[in-house]
Amino acid sequence: MARTTSETHPVSRIVGCILGVFAILMAGVWGTNAGDDLALSVGAYGNSGTYTVSGCHDTDLRSNKSDYKCTGMFLPHGGQGSSYAEIDGAAEDYPDGARVEMQKEPGGEPQPTGFWPALGEIWQVGLALMVVGIGIALLVDPKKSPHARPETTPREKVSQGFSVVGVAGLAIAVLDGVVAIVAGLISLAA
Questions:
Q1: Could you tell me the residue ranges of all domains in the chain?
Q2: CA–CA gap between residue 180 and residue 186 (Å, rounded)
Q3: C-alpha distance from residue 13 to each of 7, 23, 126, 160, 187 (Å)
Q4: Distance (Å, rounded) from C-alpha 99 to C-alpha 95?
Q5: pLDDT tens-place string over residues 36-53
Q6: φ and ψ at 138, to 5 degrees?
Q7: Which of 6, 34, 127, 133 has the smallest CB count inside 10 Å?
Q8: CA 180 to CA 147: how far, in whole Å?
């Protein structure tokens, strides 16, 4: 008996579900880390202070990409105890002696604050929301038979809700990119 194109093999569905759950979990971890960095970038928590750069060097020797590691001292505002701090994966090659406003959570590395650092985290949160939302929507969405009733089931409503979350995440990421392009053009013109 020949299968129709709408039928899938049970093993394929199980493997698809396992891969889908893995993608959702990975996107959730990525989104949580980006959300944490975003909260630091906007000053929502942590200690604000000034990071004085001792030196930065490029740890990626390929000519097409840079990945800077910086060392220096972090002095919280209020002057309570400066501490040595390293930044792995710094966004730029800060000159020696540069003083940069940053936020630092206890035990963490300093995070630059302001418009550009926050903009650099928002798109990651948006894409993670998109993957989680669409992934859950696809996992929850029931397979309809051609003879199904026309009313929407609770599972379909949940799936539709998570689809909206996914589309919103994509919209956030795209809007972030548009704002970055416009702000970059404005700063070039100034």
A1: 10-39+116-143+153-189, 46-111
A2: 10
A3: 10, 15, 27, 20, 50
A4: 9
A5: 989 999 989 888 999 999
A6: -70, -35
A7: 6
A8: 49
